[in-house]
Specification:
The chain is of the alpha+beta class and 328 residues long. The protein contains eleven helices and twelve strands. Helices cover 38% and strands 21% of the residues. Strands 5-6-7-8-4-3-2-10-11-12 form a ten-stranded antiparallel sheet, with helices on both faces. It has a two-stranded antiparallel sheet with strand order 1-9.
Length: 328
């Protein structure tokens, strides 16, 4: 950017006439309003991808199950972000234009849809991670909701994905379709023997795609959209606990660890008994504190991240560091 040295000299002389001294630097001229502040330089590369994203508020959340114990809502322009990532990879030499075109062509053929013209343009600007209920194992009851603008396209994609999984499983997994009203919920029955009951599932409602590690999380989400299940609502206690932590930003989060602690403490005696039998070590489960004793020291976590011309700001509070949806 070129500098008008003549105009700058006039500003310095005016400063001297008013203040009786020369300015320490250009920032002082800006701070004292002798010259206007310059607009921030446009963000580029990874910084642009991460920070130049839309804001959202609590009102932008989809209807979540009333059993929800946490959420993390993120403003994310999915369509633009995909192209920004591809451009960055190309600039770094990771892909050529020809390779990108070949990739899109192959995806179009596999999906039976135009990835750029149909699928990417059907995506919205919000993603929401949510916990559909108390879970001792973090994440197992979690769901992901992705905002969409064209439900018809995404329903076709959903059905095609079910077909691809079924055909590629080689008999090792089974895709099951269930109906909740007029919404199809697809789930994958995995081979037995897994340490945790995981049944990947997905569904498309009018405004959201829901994906979960079990069918229950997706089913509860779908029922909330149709109004057949109770919905989580921010009550007075939520507002008081959030305090001055913003309810508008690029990332909003909330998590209540107490239901999960109750479930975990209820499981520990049985787990300790199994350890005792398997190892011969004698651990006294009676020494464990009751869930109520632990929870009296805990409170819900709240957090927010805001990006503006001044940069990125984060604020939050938490009673305990936990790997859970919505934890700061």
């Amino acid at each position: 950017k070129t500098i008008d040295t003549a105009a700058l000299k006039q500003h310095i002389q005016l400063f001297y006439a008013q203040e009786g001294r020369f300015p320490k630097d250009l920032n002082e001229l800006v701070k004292e309003k002798y010259i206007p502040s310059l607009p921030p330089a446009p963000r580029r590369g990874i910084v642009k991808i991460l920070l130049d994203q839309p804001k959202l508020t609590l009102a932008d959340l989809p209807a979540l199950p009333e059993e929800t114990t946490g959420f993390a809502a993120i403003g994310l322009d999915l369509t633009r972000t995909v192209y920004d990532v591809l451009d960055l990879i190309k600039r770094l030499g990771g892909l050529t234009d020809e390779q990108v075109e070949q990739g899109f062509a192959q995806a179009d053929e596999t999906l039976g849809l135009r990835l750029r013209e149909d699928v990417l343009l059907a995506l919205g600007q919000k993603i929401v991670f949510f916990d559909a209920g108390s879970q001792a194992i973090p994440g197992i009851g979690a769901g992901l909701a992705i905002e969409i603008k064209d439900a018809d396209v995404m329903r076709r994609l959903s059905a095609r994905m079910a077909q691809i999984v079924q055909e590629g499983a080689g008999g090792q997994a089974q895709v099951v379709e269930e109906k909740v009203g007029d919404v199809s919920i697809f789930s994958v029955e995995l081979p037995p023997g897994l340490p945790f009951p995981i049944h990947p599932a997905w569904a498309v409602t009018d405004g959201w795609v829901a994906v979960g590690l079990n069918t229950e999380a997706v089913q509860r989400f779908v029922e909330c959209q149709s109004g057949t299940r109770g919905r989580w609502k921010p009550d007075t206690a939520f507002a008081q606990a959030r305090g001055d932590i913003p309810t508008e930003g690029n990332w909003l989060a909330w998590s209540d660890p107490r239901p999960g602690i109750e479930t975990l403490m209820g499981m520990l005696p049985g787990l300790i008994d199994q350890i005792n039998q398997a190892t011969g070590v004698q651990i006294d489960a009676a020494l464990l504190p009751a869930a109520k004793q632990v929870n009296q020291h805990l409170f819900p976590s709240h957090a927010a991240m805001i990006v503006d011309d001044r940069g990125m700001r984060w604020g939050g509070n938490s009673s305990v560091p936990m790997l859970a949806i919505g934890s700061p």
